[in-house]
Amino acid sequence: MRADAQKNYDHLLAIARDVFTEQGVDASLRDVARRAGVGLGTLYRHFPTREALLEALLRASFDELTAKAKESETSNSPAEALVSWLRDVVTVAHSPRGVVASMAAAIADENSALHASCVTMKAAGARLLVRAQASGLARSDLEGADLFALVGALAWIHDQPSLAPRADYLFRLIAGAILTSRSRNDAECD
Amino acid sequence: MRADAQKNYDHLLAIARDVFTEQGVDASLRDVARRAGVGLGTLYRHFPTREALLEALLRASFDELTAKAKESETSNSPAEALVSWLRDVVTVAHSPRGVVASMAAAIADENSALHASCVTMKAAGARLLVRAQASGLARSDLEGADLFALVGALAWIHDQPSLAPRADYLFRLIAGAILTSRSRNDAECD
DNA sequence: ACCTGAACACCGTTCAAGT
DNA sequence: ACCTGAACACCGTTCAAGT
User: Fold this and answer.
1) Domain-by-domain residue ranges, chain A?
2) Exposed (0-12), middle (13-18) or buried (19+): which is A146, by Cβ within 10 Å?
3) What whole-number distance in Å separates Cα of residue A165 and Cα of residue A114?
4) A35-94 pLDDT per residue, tens
5) Which of A143, B25, B42, B93 is the most exposed place for a label (fewest CB within 10 A)?
6) CATH class of the A1-48 domain in this structure
7) Which residues of chain A have a Cβ shorter than 8 Å from any chain B Cβ?
8) Is the pTM of this model over 0.85?
């Protein structure tokens, strides 16, 4: 990439981060280009779709989450590894506001620029779930897709100002529903 | 209201129901007016905001839900009354697509045309919850607002085509988390 | 190679002019 | 009273023209 192009690319990304953080994921792309001091066509050249821009913004976070899931696979507490990872995913999925809907759409749409990172992350989470299930610590009828749906639901709650104050409580409620009673009280049935 | 105005009002409502059902709650109001064969100003005269139009479309459903909650208050199964009512609310809240976000916003915004019906409904649900809690059948740390948040979360899942197939399963998962074990197995602790 | 911004087809909202 | 549609200020997306 030519030096001037690289500079525009980086600057657009930085501005887009600000604008999306302020206004959510449906913010005006025109506004992004304007605030970056760049022609509208330059934005479209570097990021042909809104998803491509989001992907560039979020890739690092997705990669971190995938990496964290892999590391946790060897931890000695499969239940805690799963819940802690879910909490991190929820945090990423509700910032910027509205991004979780893009993620859900990306999983179904192979052509979305977000598809690959979302699917990879979903698969990494599914492995944490299988491991917890194998130890009898998570409900056995839960599927990988359910994990993503519950993360999405919790991120949606975070996105609604009127509901956000109870989001942490509801996370614990749902985490409790994912885990079996065995994982919360090992002595119970032994 | 003059007869011609009444006719426009009714026709706009019928067309809006179709358009919102097809395209979700963010559908073009211009398109609604166009398909109703009516000037754009006529739509805005009858429904000054999108919320006013939604309210006219959904009022009957909201009223039914409020009435159903009141009837169930005398049923002899507080737990089942709560869960069955929640299921009905989720059904209303995800049709048309996206309406649940409007409902969440309306609860926080006193000036929204949807505010009154949402608050009334939320309160009716909260009473069902209190009753179930009084019998020890529902988690005691749950609040009325949490009920609404969970309904919203489930409706959001319904709205995502990739997640909808598991929505019923996840409803049962969350309903199970709301209820206490006592309500699922009364003999357990007696 | 890369950038620009006009052009096109939309949108929500308002309001002067009509009946 | 009520209706109409032009007008205004936006938007996403494309692409000919420039450097």
Assistant:
1) 1-48, 50-184
2) buried
3) 29
4) 999 999 999 999 999 999 999 999 999 999 999 999 999 998 999 999 999 999 999 999
5) A143
6) mainly alpha
7) 101, 104-105, 107-108, 139, 141-143, 145-146, 148-150, 152-154, 156-157, 160-163, 166-167, 169-170, 173-174, 176-178
8) yes
